[in-house]
Amino acid sequence: MGDWTFFSNHGHVLVCLAANREVRLRDVATEVGITERAVQKIVRDFQDAGIVSVSKQGRCNRYRINKRKALRHNLVSHCTVGKLLSLVAKPVGGSRKIEDEPEETQRVFNPVVNEPKPEPKPEAEPEAPPEPSSGPAPVDPRQQGRLF
C-alpha cells in the first residue's frame, strides 16, 4: 500500500495548531513527521495567507487560527478553515464549539443533505408481454454497438 494521505503537510500542521494553541513547533514537526524548519515555513505561509496569527506570551508562542478564512483551492473555496477543522481536528478537553464561526456557519456543508428528497415515482402498470414474432427482436437505438 502506498504512503499517501488525504492531507498535505500544511493540512496536518493546521490540525495540530487547532488542537493545541500553545504547542511547540518542535512537537508539531514530530507529530507530522517533518522537520521543524518545514513547520516554521508552513506557519509563515499560513501567516502570509491570513490563516494563522502568532502572538508571544512569555517565552511561548500562541497560534490563533482565522476560522472564517476561505480555503484556497477553487474546488473547496466555498468552505472555511473552521468548517474543515470542525470535521477533522480533535478538540482539546472534550467537545468545543468553533468560537470564531457565527452560529449559522457552523453547519457542515453537505449538499446532499440540503437537497429535497425526490418524490417517489408512481408504479407503472405492468406491460403486456410482447407478442411472439418470427423475425429478430427490434434493437433499441441507444443500445446499438454495446455489448452489455
Task: Characterize the structure shown.
The protein has helices at 9-19, 25-32, 36-49, 81-88, 111-114, and strands spanning 52-57, 60-65. It is of the alpha+beta class. The radius of gyration is 27 Å and the shape is elongated. Residues 94-115 have low confidence and may be disordered.
Distance between the terminal alpha carbons, to the nearest Å?
Answer: 33 Å
CATH superfamily of the domain at 9-110: Winged helix-like DNA-binding domain superfamily/Winged helix DNA-binding domain
Q: Bin the strand percentage.
A: 5-15%
Order of helices and strands: HHHEEHH
Cα gyration radius (Å) = 27 Å
**Largest sheet: number of strands, sense, barrel closure:** 2 strands, antiparallel
